[in-house]
Amino acid sequence: MFATSCSNDDNDGETIVPIQGKYNLSQTGTIIDGKEVLIDAPENASGCSRDYLDLRLSNAAVIGDYSGENCALVETTGTYVRSHNDLTLTVGSISSTSDIMNLTNKELKIKNKTTGVITVYTR
Fold it and tell me: Which tens digit of pLDDT belongs to each residue from 1-53?
């Protein structure tokens, strides 16, 4: 018997896809009885573009929120730090850390370490 190692086994379960980019809010949910239960994000205002999270190379995080009859855009800027599979977002004095559950060229799925809420963003 011989054992072989693939190069992707050497990253301790971390993804090597860059996290920078603009992600549209898609779904939210949680784990119930061991299963993920996701719904379309109620934060997205009907008839408007989807809210978004823009993670920039400068470690700035821009949260875009469309709301109201005119779909007015409000952008809130903060910072983010990625450490292994943790993503910490800080806006003002409020900071939250999430586990990166999935990161691909098309999706960012995070789970808040405090609340257990899962948020799915798509590119």
Answer: 444 444 444 445 555 788 999 999 999 999 999 999 999 999 999 999 999 99
What is the C-alpha separation between 72 and 94, in angstroms, rounded?
24
Q: Exposed (0-12), middle (13-18) or buried (19+): which is 41, by Cβ within 10 Å?
A: middle
Please report, to the nearest 10 degrees, the dihedral formed by the alpha carbons of residues 68, 53, 96, 41 taken in order: 50
Q: Give the phi and the psi of residue 121 in degrees, each rounded to 5.
A: -115, 145
Tell me the average pLDDT of the chain.
Answer: 90
**Alpha-carbon dihedral of residues 63, 102, 17, 23, nearest 10 degrees?**
-20
* CB-based contact 57:20 (threshold 8 Å): yes
Identity (one letter) of the amino acid at 112?
N
Chain CA centroid to CA 95, Å: 14
Strand partners, 86: 83, 99
The whole-number pLDDT of residue 14 equals: 58
